[in-house]
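Format is sequence with structure; example below:
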Amino acid sequence: MNSLISRREATAALGALAAAPVLAKPPRTDWHALAADVKAEMKWAWANYRERAWGKDDFLPVSGGSRSFPLKIHHLGLSLIEAMDTLWVMGLDQEFADALAWVKANADFDVDGEVSVFETEIRLVGGLLSAHHACGDPALLAKARDLADRLLPAFDTPTGMPYRYVNLRTKAVRDPATNPAECGTHIAELGTLSKLTGDPKYYEAAKRALTAMYQRRSKIGLLADKIDVRTSQWLSRRASIAPPCDSYYEYCWDGWQLFGDRDCKRMYDALTAAIVQHQVQHIGGHLWFVDVDFETGARLTTEQDELASFYGGLLAQGGAGAIGATYTRAWASVQDKFGILPEGYEPATGKPTAVTNALRPELADAAFNHWLLDRRPEWRELSRTHYLNMKRWNRAPYGYTDMADVTTKRQADYCPGYWWSEQMKYYYLLFSDTPRFNYRDNYLSTEGNVLRGFIRSAG
């Protein structure tokens, strides 16, 4: 409010406050009890998955069924592999042991079928590596390496940027029209594989792709969202922090955080400076990042994508804590409005442009990264709301499901594999202060896989 208050009005207001009853402070949150509740929900959902969809890719928690991903007609154990390091850090050791036994006996990637290189990398290769980080079993590393070797033919292009799809058995590749995220989100997993095996080819392939994309930025420093990996010809003009660009920026930073690669930090800093310069806009009292033309900076749309809500946490990691926090608070205001974030939101009108929510973890991801850096209570509180709202509206007969309409809270019937790997881990790490995790020195991938920071000797 901009108008000045007179001395008489101020005195009257103070008198009213003095006469008003003193309201009791709300009870302090018992964070460890909340962590125990997260663990109990994970254990309950896992038991239902074990009974109804053991070894299947994605669980359908309303009907109790399953569906395959990333292959169309063959299961690779996606949810099981994605869940493993979350089970371990929660101390669900028997559940982890059961999953490990399944992987060692059944995980086989010699399949005549086409997969997304990006999705398979961050979910399955990353999941196997994080499970290996948790327990040290060499079989997990061997399987991660076998799968990565089946993906590497996609990187054999004139530019080094990978095709989007590859056949796991025949090595046939398809779709040269890619994007920053699918091109550049590999260095964490492949770099970890190089570090563990001593073979540099994995890191080299990932960094070549990451760098090739960066080198094709526009004169104002922005990337568009579609490119041909054979010719390096841009096929679009849209610059965005949302998909299909989002995790590219993460992995520029992550190459520095995880491996100390100064080239990656230089790329991250340059790209971030351009994004902040050309894409920040204040709308409705909040700071947002809008989509612009990557060569001119002209605004294309102010519509927001829920998946971009991770970005405030990344900005904080990269040193821009104030702007990152402001952006995360903008998304927190949308959560306050709808309870669950809509997939699409227009800040100019305050209305959703897509009312679904695929059980998304991005806001909790941002809060976790903020909290690791500054320990402000607001980030725990934001995540508490995120968790309790999920528990209220997304809990289904056999687990947690996505939302068909956040405005009416109508459920759909799908639990994506990342639910097991991401938000349940973020909640638990935020609330538990577990001795199994190093809160000062750690790394979580874009899929929430812990590739550094587990403490195995802890009970």
